Amino acid sequence: MFKRLVYLIPLLAALFVAGVTALGYYADGEKYRQQEHAEVMHILADYKSALDGALNARLHLANSLNHSLSASPTMSQEEFEALSQGLLAEVGGIRSMHFARGTSISLVYPASELSKVGAPLSSLAEGGVRALALLAMEKGQSQMIVTHEKGHDAILTVLVPVFAAETDTVIGVVSVVADATTFFRESELDRRDGPLLLGLRSPESQGTGSIMLAGAPVVFDMNPEIREIALPSGIWQLAGVPKQGWGRSPYGTYILAGGGVCIFLIPVSLWAVLIMIMGRFKDREKYRQLVQNAKSIILHMDLAGTITFCNEYAEEFYGYDPGELIGKPLVGSLIPEKDLEGNSMKRYWNRLLKTPSAHPFNETVNMRKNGEIVWVAWANDATVASDGTTIGLLCVGTDITDRKLMEEALRQREKQYRLLAENVSDVIWGLDADTRFTYVSPSDETVRGFKRYDVLGRHVEEFLSPASKARFMESVAALDGQMVREGTIPSITEDMEFICADGSTVWLEVHIGLLLNDDGEKIGMQGVGRDITDRKLAEALREDVERMAKHDLKTPLGAVIGLPAEIRSRGGLSPAQKTMLETVENAGKTMLQLINRSLDLYKMECGTYVLNRVTVDVLAIFERIKAEVQPQIRDKGISIGLEMLSHQSDRHFPVNGDEELLCSMLSNLLLNALEASPDSGAIVITLDKREKISLSIRNQGEVPAAIRDTFFEKYSTANTASGSGLGTYSARLIARTHGGDITVDTDLPGQTTIKVTLPLATPLS
Hints:
Layout: H1 2-71, H2 77-87, E1 94-101, E2 104-109, H3 127-139, E3 143-148, E4 154-163, E5 170-179, H4 180-186, E6 196-202, E7 211-215, E8 225-231, E9 234-242, H5 252-292, E10 297-302, E11 307-310, H6 312-318, H7 330-333, H8 345-354, E12 361-367, E13 373-384, E14 390-399, H9 401-423, E15 427-432, E16 437-440, H10 443-448, H11 452-455, H12 466-486, E17 491-499, E18 505-516, E19 522-531, H13 533-570, H14 575-606, E20 613-617, H15 618-628, H16 630-636, E21 639-644, E22 654-658, H17 659-676, E23 682-689, E24 693-700, H18 727-737, E25 741-745, E26 751-758
Parallel strand pairs: 21-23
Antiparallel strand pairs: 1-2, 1-5, 3-4, 4-5, 6-7, 6-9, 8-9, 10-11, 10-14, 12-13, 13-14, 15-16, 15-19, 17-18, 18-19, 20-22, 23-24, 24-26, 25-26
């Protein structure tokens, strides 16, 4: 606050002196301007009087002619000349005078103007003069105009309407044409030795803007004094400014100079006085700001260990009231008698008071007033008297309780994590961004037989089987893509086959997650692997048992399928018995087909299925399937259309492939389309055979959103009550066994398109 006053008071004083100086300078200048403007107005009054006299002389001349012509409207040319000569005795600079009766000139002066007698009024020299003459006759009001003829001096024309005697009827107009130079000379406007710059203009003359009549136009831009000259039909403006322009007060410079000196001297003197007065408070204020507002514990003790000073933060930190700590011993009040290890803290602080330089920094346990234990890091320094003897100890402390608790928690957590990682049966490992091992738990040696130093720094791909290596790369790519799309930290779980130290392999169920830095960039991966080799062996054994059981079932099924025909051949059967035998025979054939198809699917999954390629007519297959499902088509009212895009016969569409597999695939797809289509819907089958073989089935109805991503996976179905989830899976397996593929398209709202593509093949011999 004091520091602000030291600068604020001189600043306010400087502003006050500056304001007084500015007011004085303005008042003096305003007084001088008023005097100067008054002098200009006085001189302009003289010029205006002279100008009024010159104007009145010419108006008097025109009015005299007007009165004479009103009294004697039939005046002859000789009488008009004689009258004009008599009137011109006292007026100079008159060039000519005319009298126009009606719209034609009838009388003129001097005789050199006789050629205009009888001429129309429009023969007057200037268009502006003609217009004013007509205006004077129309309004019955005198007009005056100054014109500049090309190549001649300016001309002043006075136009006065002539009325019939004792009536208001205008019978004509009198024009007096005078030399403007003589006119301005009489009014003294052309004086070059005068004290003023003068300007005379006619403002807004007939809508044409201001017209400069005499003097310099720039006068009107110099904030002039203006006097108005009244005319019969308007005004003129006479403006004047001092010839050297408006001046400034001769005392203004002295006022500014004196004010500037005062603005400097008064604040500086006042500032020096304030500095001397408040100088002694500066150190105290600085000390208070440093000590009281510091977010550190500041204590001072005497050599007996008694607290002689503490700042406000220390009192708040320890929970004491202001001044309550003064006079208390440090040990016993803020520091316990013994530390956590049982050592005497009083003995330690006594040694510290004797030799502060031996312990400039230390960390000790402290206690608050409520008994709470805290940790404080101290910086210690001795305070000395003027003679150099130690008189006390200054301690500055920082609260490190959170750091101590965090360090302890980290030590405990690290101990727990290490104990967990070292003893867990699962394999825990870490990879850097290049998929090199940075950590592997000791359990890896138990599971795979590798020493830790044999694994660290090597790529994980070196320890994976070829198939698992490809799956691992696909998983990493999927994790990277998922991180980009969702902005989260993704993870994935896969079964992978790892190579052991003895060359054998072990199956691990691996959970992989990405490691990101603070900027969201991948810096590595972390994984946990669990040994599932026994589970994999059990699954393989179960599949082998299932295959053997299915194979063994085919032998008794031969009797089930063959015996009905043998019984029918012996005869003597009733129709009901024949129907039952046929049912048994069909059931046996269906079961045999299911067993064969299951074995075929397994072979296709293993890649060992051998295709029996023949020429198959796809159109015939579709017709046969339509005949088999005709009751379902009729019940739902569904129409099935067929479209051929390539240049093939409209009765055949041959394809090289395994007939049984193709029949199974197309049957599954068409049945799925029928089940998914609403009543009275439509199914469109499109066949194309150009660059490749393309078979598409489009039906109304959408694939449920829940199974779109898993539409072709095993056991994926929206209706678990009516479907096994193997139809689309087997269809795609059959298409891929033929070297093609199958896709689903749900982009069109309310429709689903299944598209099968097969490679072109050479015709079979």
